[in-house]
Amino acid sequence: MDLWQLLLTLALAGSSDAFSGRETTAAILSRVSQSLLSVNPGLKTNSSKKPKFTKCRSPELETFSCHWTDAVHHGLKNPGPIQLFYTRRNAQEGTQEWKECPDYVSAGENSCYFNSSFTSIWIPYCIKLTSNGGTVDEKCFSVNQIVQPDPPIALNWTLLNISLTGVHADIQVRWEAPPNADIQKGWMVLEYELQYKEVNETQWKMMDPILSTSVPLYSLRVDKEYEVRVRSKQRKSENYGEFSEVLYVKLPQMSQFTCEEDFYFPWLLIIIFGISGLTVMLFVFLFSKQQRKEN
Ligand SMILES: *[C@@H]1O[C@H](CO)[C@@H](O)[C@H](O)[C@H]1NC(C)=O
Ligand SMILES: *[C@@H]1O[C@H](CO)[C@@H](O)[C@H](O)[C@H]1NC(C)=O
Ligand SMILES: *[C@@H]1O[C@H](CO)[C@@H](O)[C@H](O)[C@H]1NC(C)=O
Ligand SMILES: *[C@@H]1O[C@H](CO)[C@@H](O)[C@H](O)[C@H]1NC(C)=O
Ligand SMILES: *[C@@H]1O[C@H](CO)[C@@H](O)[C@H](O)[C@H]1NC(C)=O
Predict the structure, then answer these.
(1) Which mean pLDDT values do the consecutive 10-residue runs of the chain (295 residues) have?
(2) Does 15 sit in the ligand 5 pocket, CB within 6 Å?
(3) Hey, whose CA ends up nearest to atom 7 of ligand 2?
(4) Lining residues, ligand 1, CB within 6 Å
(5) Is the sign of the CA dihedral 194, 197, 202, 205 positive or negative?
(6) CATH of domain 47-146
(7) Can you tell me the distance from the alpha carbon of 225 to that of 157, in angstroms, rounded to the nearest whole number?
(8) CATH tag, 153-250
(9) CB 172 within 8 A of CB 157
(10) Whole-model pTM?
(11) Is CB count within 10 Å lower at the N or C end of the chain?
């Protein structure tokens, strides 16, 4: 039931009041109030959606930013500006002083950016969103818990090997750490997860996380095209960052057997073994003949 229906019912209730007694009015009013109850939850969830934190992320363990949802307000009341306050829980000081967000601009709309001057790694933060002086959302974390590195870059691959039959190939995939991650001095230790699939497949195959920035991929089919992507996370953390750009791998078709099925392989073996077997038999035959001659 929507509002218009409700108002109509109310109007009818009012007009019917002129004719009927109190009992009828009471009955109608109770029906109306029930309708109001059933309309109200919808109104609440729809027209006064409060802003909420969506994500806090540190790409390199030196700065971080937090984002929140827009306030949805179809109603008459202006919710007022949304403000973010933060406090660092300092064990020594023991006090909690709330300060306002240092930078609402740099990380985009509905966000707060903490540059390196405002970022301490080992001290837990609490942040809260306020609207009209009231807190609408609050969360606590330490910066090392919200690390999500930028994507790895410069993906490339080299050919390692093509199978005897020319059907399968092994390649080595390489990439570089996200440029803003300080891995040289060990400030960050990144683990990488490589995923790959045939171009036409929908499911990515996942490899186990590794610390190095290159990994071999074995037994790819030379007649297929592959897609490879890599993402990284701070070691021992749960949260991966975004995936790198996709690397397309199209293998060179070098062998004359290319595109033929694997059954070439046993045939090749049978022919090779057959020829060598015949040769051995021939030698044995000639050798024994010679021996007989000498005797
Ligand atoms: C309002 O809520 C109803 C039901 O809960 C939903 O179907 C509708 O999409 C919502 N409208 C908006 C604008 O959120
Ligand atoms: C961080 O931001 C503050 C205020 O915007 C500025 O004074 C300070 O220089 C910045 N620090 C760094 C390292 O950029
Ligand atoms: C990948 O490496 C090859 C040579 O090894 C180079 O020519 C090519 O530009 C590289 N591709 C990218 C995207 O860096
Ligand atoms: C090429 O593949 C063959 C068989 O799979 C293997 O024995 C050989 O070691 C590989 N060579 C290289 C350089 O990877
Ligand atoms: C992917 O599938 C389409 C048809 O569905 C085909 O034309 C195309 O060659 C396939 N691409 C690869 C790389 O297998």
Answers:
(1) 52 47 52 49 55 93 93 60 87 76 94 94 91 89 93 96 90 96 89 96 95 95 95 92 96 60 57 74 78 69
(2) no
(3) 117
(4) 42, 45-46
(5) negative
(6) 2.60.40.10
(7) 13
(8) 2.60.40.10
(9) yes
(10) 0.66
(11) C
